[in-house]
Structure formats: structure tokens, C-alpha cells
Write a structure and sequence with these properties.
There is one protein chain. With 216 residues, this protein is an alpha/beta fold. It has a single domain, classed as Maf protein (Alpha-Beta Complex), CATH 3.90.950.10. It is 25% helix and 25% strand. The protein contains five helices and eight strands. β2, α1 and β3 form a beta-alpha-beta unit. 38% of the residues are buried.
Length: 216
């Protein structure tokens, strides 16, 4: 079974029974995603997927993050054949342009300059694959950030302090990046860090996987 959803859509899908024997794998080397997943208090393994993250020609931002999230999960299926594999990818969209992780400090400066006084929507693709059955569910979670007026001095000072070069949008919302915002809008602030836990809980439930709190 393969289901894919767009922003704000979540239909009811029957749970897949008997997945208690499946372990959880996070297809990411991100310490931020690892820390978020630890909040659910479930045992899991992390492994870095090796995929090409180049956007396809004329690919929409929603299709891009969903495709990459799925590809990350599928990339580990052979190594983890009896697992629930979580894949996630994130991009920032501002004025119709897609922004990923900056390559260096100057790219980060350019990104944040562009975001000044603008709204940036972060799209997180999230996919959970049952590598034993091949069943996969994929969604996209949006979250919008409204930026303050940012001077180059403010931007360079922030980048020097936090070095957010491995973050889409060139900031860390769990750190000083919060000082760059006027306000935020969305269902799950964890989306900004790269792993929307509310939607992840739903996807795990679709596979029949119960969290410790749900099993009581």
C-alpha cells in the first residue's frame, strides 16, 4: 500500500496489524531529528541514507520533499528489511523560490537577507516505510515563519554564533534563530527542526505501531 498526501489532508486509513516485531529506524544523521524522536520514548536506530537530493526539472516543492523523504526511507530498506523506516526532508519557500541548506556562510547571509520582512513557509516531507511489507505512507507538513527586519550586521552575528549551515533556511529555531522572527504559524513547531512529531505519531499509528502512551 502506498499513500501520499498533500498539505492539510489526512484521511482515515486502516491500521496494519502485527507490527510489534518491527523495530524503528530513523533515516537521518541529523542530531536534531534524533533528539526529537527520542521524545516519543521508543527504541530506534539511526542510519544515514545516501541519496541524490537534486530537484527534478519543474518539480513542485511539495513533490520534492515527499519524493526525498520516501527515497531516504527506501534507501535503507535492504539494510533494514524488517523495520519501520522514517524518512524526512525539508525545504524553505519564499517568494516562490525554494531554499535548502546553505553551502557556506555567504549563502546563509544571502538567504537571511532575502527573508528579511518576508514570510517563509517550511515544507517537511515525512514518510514511514514498512520495509517488510512495502507499505509506505507519506505526508507534507507546512509551517510558516514571519521574519523581522534583518540587517547584515544582525545576520552575520547570528550566523557566527550558531553556524546554521546544515539547516534549511539558515537558522535554528530551537536556538537563537527564534530572535529573527515576528511570529510563527503552523500545527507543529517541531516541523521547523525537521521532524513533525504530531504527524509522525499518526503515520506510525497507520502502520499499527503503538507508542508507549497509546498502549496503556
Amino acid at each position: 500500500m502506498h499513500t501520499k498526501e498533500h498539505v492539510g489532508l489526512f484521511d482515515s486509513v486502516p491500521k496494519t496489524p502485527n507490527v510489534d516485531h518491527l523495530s524503528v529506524v530513523l533515516a537521518s544523521s541529523s542530531p536534531y531529528r534524533k533528539e526529537l524522536l527520542e521524545r516519543l520514548r521508543i527504541p530506534f536506530t539511526t542510519a544515514a541514507p545516501n541519496i541524490d537530493e537534486t530537484p527534478l526539472e519543474d518539480e513542485t516543492h511539495i513533490h520534492l520533499v515527499q519524493r526525498l523523504a520516501e527515497n531516504k526511507a527506501r534507501a535503507l530498506a535492504n539494510k533494514f528489511p524488517k523495520h519501520l523506516i522514517i524518512g524526512s526532508d525539508q525545504i524553505a519557500v519564499c517568494t516562490g523560490e525554494i531554499f535548502g541548506k546553505p553551502k557556506d556562510v555567504e549563502a546563509a547571509v544571502a538567504q537571511l537577507k532575502h527573508f528579511s520582512r518576508r514570510t517563509v513557509t517550511f515544507y517537511t516531507g515525512l514518510s514511514v516505510l514498512n520495509s517488510e511489507s512495502g507499505e509506505i505512507h507519506t505526508i507534507t507538513e507546512p509551517y510558516s515563519v514571519y521574519f523581522r527586519t534583518l540587517t547584515e550586521k544582525m545576520i552575520r552575528h547570528y550566523i557566527e554564533l550558531e553556524q546554521p549551515l546544515n539547516c534549511a533556511g539558515s537558522f535554528k529555531s530551537e536556538g537563537l534563530g527564534i530572535t529573527l522572527f515576528l511570529k510563527m504559524k503552523g500545527d507543529d513547531p517541531n516541523s521547523l527542526i525537521g521532524l513533525p512529531l504530531i504527524r509522525l505519531t499518526d503515520l506510525l499509528s497507520r502502520h499499527g505501531f503503538e507508542l508507549p502512551e497509546q498502549a496503556r
